[in-house]
Structures are given as C-alpha cells and as structure tokens.
C-alpha cells in the first residue's frame, strides 16, 4: 500500500486524512486477501521542503544521498505519461498545477519510507 505521509505532500487535508487512516488501521483498513495480509506493507510518500519540491530532476541527486526505504526515479516516458494524465482533467488544471507540471520533483523522483 502506498499513501501520503503526515505532511500530505502539499498539506492537503484529504492527503493527510489518508495517512492518518492508514496509520491507524494499516492494512486492516483495506480488504486484503488472507493469503496476502501477512505480507502487507505500507509505504508513505515523503513530503519535501518547498525548494526541493520544485527543482524537478535536480532533486534526483539529493534524493539519492538521503536515507529512505525506497526511491522511484521515473523514466522520461513515465514522466510524460503522468503529465498527459493530469492534462486530461481540465477542470483541475489551474495555473499552479501547470507550474507543478513544469517543476515538480514528484513527476521525476519519489522517495518513500515504510510506515
């Protein structure tokens, strides 16, 4: 299971609520087949400071040097696919989300920790 951390990446109340619920219940919150429940793990996406959040691919080096349990570096194709997916939601594509598409490290690199 992958969810947000306590900071909710952007401080969004819904993101923080997801973290709180999963932290409280863990894998019991979700329907997990009995054969998989024992192996269920929760990873949380790390919130980073504002500077790191918007330096895009430059954060790859920083992320590689810092401790974490998992690090996902997206390929150029995966980054473009994520951008196309966001662009499909026109009502959500406000000016600040357009900046997010240009500069966010989360479209390039994601560091996670085990809960």
UniProtKB/TrEMBL annotation:
It comes from the Eukaryota. InterPro entries: GlcNAc_PI_deacetylase-related, LmbE-like_dom_sf. It is an enzyme of class 3 (hydrolase). Its EC number is 3.5.1.89. GO terms for molecular function: N-acetylglucosaminylphosphatidylinositol deacetylase activity. GO terms for cellular component: endoplasmic reticulum; membrane. Gene3D superfamilies: LmbE-like. One of its GO terms (biological process) is GPI anchor biosynthetic process. Belongs to the PIGL family. This is N-acetylglucosaminylphosphatidylinositol deacetylase. It comes from Prunella fulvescens (Brown accentor).
